[in-house]
Amino acid sequence: xxxxxxxxxxxxxxxxxxxxxxxxxxxxxxxxxxxxxxxxxxxxxxxxxxxxxxxxxxxxxxxxxxxxxxxxxxxxxxxxxxxxxxxxxxxxxxxxxxxxxxxxxxxxxxxxxxxxxxxxxxxxxxxxxxxxxxxxxxxxxxxxxxxxxxxxxxxxxxxxxxxxxxxxxxxxxxxxxxxxxxxxxxxxxxxxxxxxxxxxxxxxxxxxxxxxxxxxxxxxxxxxxxxxxxxxxxxxxxxxxxxxxxxxx
Length: 249
Known about the structure:
Number of helices: 9
CATH class of the largest domain: Alpha Beta
Number of strands: 10
CATH topology of the largest domain: Rossmann fold
Helix content: 10-25%
Shape: globular
CATH superfamily of the largest domain: Alpha/Beta hydrolase fold, catalytic domain
């Protein structure tokens, strides 16, 4: 425990945990104070160039969504995944980022107010790839929200930092393939109509991936739980929604 601050509705702790045998990472964890039952957990991941604290900052582009969740009775956790250097040998940059995201179950087992079987992970832009990549193997993950990243490899090669790439990815897969791995968990994707064509995530680059979500998904658990894909396209303050679903049954 590095620090602890008690607010009216939750306790905010800054901690350090052992991510690998040779590396320790820092994280922010909030626990609701006014609950008699275990709180559902939300892994709050920042985007490109962010840090673990920015998702709690209401003045940032994240609008403090992690603080909003904390005040509504959710347990939250946020770690740093924005590095551009590989910390350990024989690892990839995205591999280390995904591993850091998946370190959250360690926290849940140590905190009695977490509910490891009921988690969600919202993420913005680059973090959305981390969310959809780490969600399938993170124990207890039930849902993922991808804000502003569903796109194609071709678009990501146009005006974007290439820190997301690693050997074997783009030669064999597209981002819709990675997103499909979330089945049978719920997945919501959001792409804005005002996203620029170069350096952004426009709706037209998200559309090609939609048909892939409709094909049969591999069953990752013994339960036949449908995986619903929610595609939300925001226009100014109003939202135009298109709903797509796929099932592992």
